[in-house]
Amino acid sequence: MPERWDVIVVGGGTAGLSAAKSASSEGGKVLLLEMSARIGTTAQLGSLVSSDFKSLGKKPVVQRLRKIELYAPHGELSVNYDRAVVVDQRRLDEHLAADVAEHGGEIWLNAPVRDLLVKDGVVVGVRIEAGGWSENIEGEVIIDATGARGEMSSLFLRHVVKRYWNQDFLAFSNEYLMANVKDGK
Fold first, then answer.
1. Is residue 151 domain-resident?
2. Which pTM was predicted?
3. What CATH number does the domain containing 116 carry?
4. CA separation for the pair 140, 122 (Å, rounded)
5. DSSP 8-state class, residue 37
6. For a disulfide at 139, which of 5, 20, 29, 178, Cβ 3.0-4.6 Å?
7. In degrees, to the nearest 5, what angle opens at C-alpha 60 toward C-alphas 45 and 40?
8. Who's near 51: CB < 8 A, 6+ residues apart?
9. pLDDT tens-digit profile of 2-17?
10. 156 within domain boundaries
């Protein structure tokens, strides 16, 4: 195990897996930390994804679209559109995880991140903790892909910005925030 990682991704959902896949495929020493016993979603969901999504593979694809039809109380819309596919979310997440591992990235399950390591106002790593065990892990770039749904989510928002999600107004979030990224890389 490297003493210091190039990229640490916190959260093993689709956003975290996508970030880890991108970083590992570019040659970075990548560590993805997931607090639960499995990566990805626990529910079998379908998602709409652009068919231009590189390296999607055929396994996650459930159906290719030819037309999108939207129905609402005040109108309907039908558009011919052949640049999207419906994917099985679990299979997509498994596919992304396999790509992370194939490119040398590591995925740790049952590794809940409890805090960020901050030195001189800069995020330099994370602290994982389970039971009586804890470990500090340092990295150059830390990606918070924990989402917005639980007590352990949105590390940067809670610890750096000192704000919390207003659950009353929260619908969903698939964003991730990054620290220590320079020159648009």
1. yes
2. 0.71
3. 3.50.50.60
4. 10
5. S
6. 5
7. 50
8. 64, 82, 83, 84, 85
9. 578 999 999 998 889 9
10. yes
